[in-house]
Amino acid sequence: MNDALKGKRVLLGVSGGIAAYKAAVLVRLLRGSGAEVQVVMTRAAREFITPMTLQALSGNPVRCELFDEAHEAAMGHIELARWADAILIAPASADLMARLAAGMADDLLTTLCLASEAPLYLAPAMNQAMWRHPATVDNAARLARRGVTLCGPAEGEQACGDQGPGRMLEPEQLLALLAEALTPRGRSLDGVAVTITAGPTREGLDPVRFISNHSSGRMGFACAAAAAELGARVRLVAGPVSLPTPAGVERVDVESAEQMREAVLASPGAIFIATAAVADYRPAAVGAEKIKKGADSMRLELLRNPDILAEVAALELGRPFCVGFAAETENLVAHARAKLEGKRLDMLAANWVGARAEGGGFDSEENALELFWADGAESLPRAPKTELARELLARIAARYHETNK
Ligand code: PMT
Fold it and tell me: Rounded to an integer, what is the distance from CA 317 to the centroid of its chain?
């Protein structure tokens, strides 16, 4: 953990949900890392934890009401909004997210969020069906588009007995994310060598034809830009795409999976992020001349391509921190977990492609990611790929530093 929170003024919002009890630990951790903490609770939050507890731990009076004569005389809600360097709402209930997405100011916490220019971080916590409901999905996407950072939720067993996404991230994870987010850009991966694959590969069949896929390279290029923003030395190994090279990024253009493998193994970096949609097979024979039209049908023999990511993750010497992507059309969680374990990765970002991508995945401006690591998971809701890549890189940087402590 760096000292990014030292002296920072964190306004902790607590909304109504069973995870509100974890706010007590969060306040302790925040203060322990040198932050000044003021707590604002919604009415529903007070059904789960008392203001007295959070007051004792934060060392500051807890604010609950918008129209509170005592506080409005001393520190009005506008002053409180101005005071904050960052606002973290944990837990953020479905109702609170809906009110924020609608721009409402019907209690102190939503009013503060509207009145403050401080970055806003939400730690959603709710029943899995509520999190999956199209209304909440929409609200999360709207908030993300406005620059609100959604931290989680995690997957797992829920207080109501359900299993699925909707658990609040643990206070330690929230602390690490907030510290990462408040670390001035350009420092958290300062000087770290990051190699990223992007785009499709083309597997030649003859001088004019190839096998490929719909990857545009946008997700990978966005990751390269986000890593460069964090100060990394980025090497982008790009398949054939027509995108400009992000500022400060070294680009190596390749065509086939074999060329991509060679370029990656030449310098896999300290962090390797495999966003490329590498063709799993290539034609067994590449015609020297254009294959002529003839019979009504023809058979192609294909050979398995090397799995670049699996090979890098198995390196005995200089193995980087390995992040894979998974493009799935069904059973996303099971397939993603199988790839994480099968390829022995440190992290995996899975996304839907095909009919279930709903405008995300291949060749689109937006995407949504499900992140997995050995003992955790997190959803990054739909957002422009540029924003999503920033969120992803913040998590990669946090986990990379954690594993290299
Ligand atoms: O490029 P865009 O249009 O922006 O689209 C983004 C994307 C959908 C391509 C991207 O988000 C994505 O999902 N990339 C991974 C696509 C993929 O090939 O997934 P996979 O499940 O088949 O492969 C799993 C992982 O192994 C990937 O990290 C892949 O890069 C890697 N791999 C796969 C095969 C192979 N031979 N070598 C590899 O390194």
Answer: 29
